[in-house]
Amino acid sequence: MAVYEELEKRAKLNDNGELLFIGNITEVHHFLGISTSMYSRIRRILMEAGSVEVLQRGTGAQPSIAILHGAPDPELFTLEVLTAPRRLATLVAQLEKRCERLEKWRESMPLNLQEALREHETRLNELERSVSVERGNTEDTETTSEKNLK
């Protein structure tokens, strides 16, 4: 609302009787102490409400030109609209998709923990036996991991 009011203060009537703003809209935001990150949201609300019609978008070299059609309904500028709940909804949707992909990946690669530990133990026993044979220790003794299993 404050942005529109400031635009209106700086606007002039043109030959057609329209209230015409010519200038830098970001300067209005700075003047009012509004973050430039809010610029697009506020602009979108003003345009969707029919309060502002942008004829020319400003650049560093040229000003914005907009026709002002009247102040918007103050209820359009609620905290929910300005804080962009869509961004939160998008984040939640992205996290849900990531979880789904992780669950599908986990299901596609079934892991039987008991079987995996048993195979790991078997391989460890074989390794201990081969080391024992290489060292010349041929006595038929239980390996350390076999002892630990009992």
Draw up the topology in text:
Elements: H1 2-10, E1 12-13, E2 19-23, H2 25-32, H3 39-48, E3 52-56, E4 64-68, H4 79-82, H5 85-108, H6 113-134, H7 144-149
Antiparallel strand pairs: 1-2, 2-4, 3-4
Helix pairs in contact: 1-2
Model description:
The protein is α+β, with helices and mostly antiparallel strands and 150 residues long. It has 2 domains: 2-77, Arc Repressor Mutant, subunit A (Orthogonal Bundle), CATH 1.10.10; 113-149, no CATH class. 55% of the residues lie in helices and 11% in strands. It has 7 helices and 4 strands, in the order H-E-E-H-H-E-E-H-H-H-H. It has a 4-stranded antiparallel beta sheet with strand order 1-2-4-3. A hairpin with a 7-residue loop joins strand 3 (52-56) and strand 4 (64-68). Helix 1 crosses helix 2 (25-32). The chain is rod-shaped.
Question: Can you summarize this structure?
Answer:
The protein is of the alpha+beta class. The protein has helices at residues 2-10, 25-32, 39-48, 79-82, 85-108, 113-134, 144-149, and strands at residues 12-13, 19-23, 52-56, 64-68.
What are the main properties of this structure?
Arc Repressor Mutant, subunit A; 7 helices; 4-stranded antiparallel β-sheet; alpha+beta
Instruction: Provide the β-strand percentage band.
Output: 5-15%
Annotated CATH architecture of the largest domain:
Orthogonal Bundle
Number of helices: 7
Task: Record the strand order, biggest sheet.
Answer: 1-2-4-3
Oligomeric state: single chain
Shape: rod-shaped
What is the first-to-last residue Cα distance?
78 Å
Number of strand elements: 4
**CATH class membership of the largest domain:** Mainly Alpha
**Spans where pLDDT lies below 50 across 5 or more residues:** none
